[in-house]
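During the reporting period the student researcher (J.K.) took over the structure-prediction task from the postdoctoral fellow and processed the backlog of single-chain submissions. One of the processed entries is reproduced below for the supervisory committee.
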Amino acid sequence: MKLKITLTALTLFTLCFVNAQEITETKFGKGILNVVAKDSSWSMKFATRMQFLSTTGWDINDGDYSKPETNFLVRRARLKFSGFAYSPKLKYKIELGLSNRDISGASEFTNDAPRYILDAVIKWNFYKNFTLWAGQTKLPGNVERVISSANLQLVDRSRLNSRFNIDRDLGVQLRHHFKISDKFLVREAFAISQGEGRNITTGNLGGHQYTSRVELLPFGKFQSKGDYKGGDLKREQTPKLMLAATYDFNADAVKNRSNQGSYMETSTGFFETNISTIFVDAVFKYKGFSFMGEFADRDADEAIAVEEDGTPTGDIVQVGNALNLQAGYLFKSNWEVAGRYTNLNFDAVVGRALEEQYTLGVSRYVAGHNLKVQSDISYTTEAGEGSGLMYRLQFDIHF
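J.K. obtained the following C-alpha cells:
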C-alpha cells in the first residue's frame, strides 16, 4: 500500500514538473523570477546563490605539515527577493540565509531561534535625491563589508573586516547624493540603529548606534556599481576613484566589538561603555587593475568591563586599529590574480600581539561574479613569528 502511494506521489510530481516547464526570458545571473504587475503597482525579483568552500590549514608552530586541518562546507546558501511596491520610488529587499554559518548565533537575545533574516528593508525615495531606509540591513560601514559576499575579489573578506566591521543592524538610514561638477559625485549616509546587531528580539539593552558616511567620487560613477564589487570586471576605460570615511558611535554599548562580538555581562546586568569606530577607505579601478585600501580604528571610554564594585569581569572591548590593502589585475581571459596584506594592531589592554596576514589569490570568472571559481593561500604571523598557513578553494553560483 505504501509503495503504491509513493509511486502515485512521484508520478503526480513528475507530471506537474514536466507541465510546469516553460521558456523564460530571464538571463543567467539576473534572477530566477522577474515579475511586474499588469498595472505596474509592484514587482518582484527572486534569486538564489550558493558558495561551496574547502579549507586546508596548517599550524606552522606544530611543525607537522603532514596533518593539516581540513574542512568542507556550504559557506553560504541564500534566497533573495527585491523589487518595488506601489511605486518604483518605494523599493524593498529581503535576503534569507540558510547555511549553518548564516543562521548560527542563536541565544536568549534572539529568542533561541536561528538567525535566518539577513536583510529586510524598505527604501523610499521620498524627495529628489533623498532616500529613507527602514528595517534591518548593512550599516554604511567599511566598503569591504558592504560589498556583497557574492562579489568579493578573494575567497572571503579580510581579518580587518572580521574584527572591526559594524555589519547589520535594525534601524533607519537617510541616504543622499549630489554633484559638485558634471562628474564629481558626493554621497552621504546617516543611520540610527539599535546597536546590537541583527535579529535581536530583546529590545535595546544599551544605548543606540549612530553612523555617518561620506563618499567622494571625483571621476564619476563606476560602471555597474563597480565601487561595491571586487575586481575590475568592467575594465573601466577611464580611471575611477572612490574616497570615503565613516564615523560610528555606539552609546552605552554592551558588546565587546560595538554591535558585534560577545555581550559584556555582569552579575547585575551588562557593562556599558561608549564605543567609537572610524573607517577610511579607497577604491580605484582602471583597465582591469583594481585597488582597495581600508583603515579601521576602534576606541572605547572604558575598555575593561567591570562589576559595580570595580572588579574586572574578564571582558575587554576589542580596541585598536587595522589596515587592509588589496590589489588585483583581471586578464582578458577573465583570469584574475590578486594580493592582500592585512594587519591587526590591538591596544595593549587587549593582550594580543600584532597579527599580519599575506594572501595571494587566483580567480576564474566564467560568468562574472555570478559563476566563478576562486582560490587563495594565506600566511599569518603573530608578533613577527609565523603562526599559520591556509589554502582555500571556493565555487560560487548566483542565479
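The committee noted the following: The first strand starts at residue 33 and ends at 36.
J.K. will present the remaining backlog at the next meeting.
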